[in-house]
Amino acid sequence: MTTFLTAFATAFEYLRVAFLVAAILLTAACLIDWAVRTRRLSPFGPVARFFRSTVDPLIAPVERRVVRAGGVPTSAPWWALAAVVVLGILVLSALQFIGTQIAQTITAAAIGPRAIAKLVVHWAFSLVQIAIVVRVIASWLGGPSYRWWYRAAFWLSEWLLAPLRRVIPTLGPIDISPIAAFILIGLFESLVVGLW
């Protein structure tokens, strides 16, 4: 199983380098496209014609969203770059998380049932913490409460947040009960795992 983990780590490093190279190339393409859109490069030159025929159709969906949101069409390349960078970060973070969980599972299985039980307890507490973070971010972004992921996050965290909201006062418009819940979950997890 260590060969699998080594192969996973190697593939992850190659993917990280590939994302970095893609981000650098995309930054150059977005810079040139922005220069063409803002007329810093001649709109009649071969570079401008190439970008209008190949790059602009790829950025067109982003441009439509930017314009609908009240933005300027010339900023569409930068928004496209930001979206790709955020997507790359999310993909790499998810893969790193999966690799860590696989490594922890392999280690726990090698140690025995007690380690597996501790890992399951850790996963349960982490799931509640993730649900709290999802709720906080959704409240910042004005996320719709009818989505399945929001309902799941609500179901996983409300049992702890509701009593804390009754005890902890808000600081003006800021509800600090998620922060307290996050800290309490970490403390309770260390207590439960420490007693094991």
Q: What spatial form do the alpha-carbon principal axes imply?
A: flat
| Sequence of secondary-structure elements | HHHHHHH
The biggest beta sheet reads: none
**Terminal Cα span:** 27 Å
Number of domains: 2
The total strand number stands at 0
Question: What is the typical, i.e. mean, pLDDT?
Answer: 87
Fraction of helical residues: over 70%
- Beta content: under 5%
Find the structural class using helix and strand composition: mainly alpha
Low-confidence stretches: none
Q: What is the alpha-carbon Rg in Å?
A: 23 Å
Q: What is the count of helical runs?
A: 7
Q: How would you describe this structure in keywords?
A:
flat, single chain, mainly alpha, 83% helix, 196 residues, 2 domains
